[in-house]
Every structure is written in C-alpha cells, then in structure tokens.
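Can't paste images in this forum, so I'm doing it all in text. The chain is below; anyone willing to post the predicted structure tokens underneath?
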Amino acid sequence: MLQMVIDNITKEAAYLSPDELAQLSALLNKHIEVGAQSIALANYALKMREPSLTRCVLSALLDDETKKHHPRLHALNKELKKARIFVIEA
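Text version of the structure:
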C-alpha cells in the first residue's frame, strides 16, 4: 500500500474509470458491512464470561476497529463517491 502511495506521488498517479470507482465503492461498502457485523459480534462476546485475557484482547481489537479502521473506511468511501461524481461531471 505504501509503495502505491509513493508511486502515485513520484511517478504517475493511478487512474480509475467511473466503473472501477463504482466497483471499488461497492466492495468497500461490503467490507464496511462485514466490519459492522464483526463489531456487533465482538460487543456481544465481551458480555460473555470469558477469561480476562480473552476479553482484554477482544476489547483492544474492538477499540482499534471502532476508533480507527471503521471510520477510515467510511472516510475513504466518501472520497470515492466524491471522485466518482467529479469524473462523471467532468
């Protein structure tokens, strides 16, 4: 991923057609849905009487998912939709 960013800055920017942007957005939406299901499942599992180490690890993973990963996916999807609108209108 980092190499792609470097190449986009130092070489030639990646080009995605409106159809490719739409496909990427659809896949991202599916990933967001699966992530939301995982968050719900993790919250449910935290209510169970599991060993404290299991709950600690699960809590850390849930915290990372809800505070970093999930919001970043939503932000990326929002940018993809803006890019698709920009390309269609251009």
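Residues 15 and 21 are 10 Å apart (CA to CA). Residues 29-90 form one domain.
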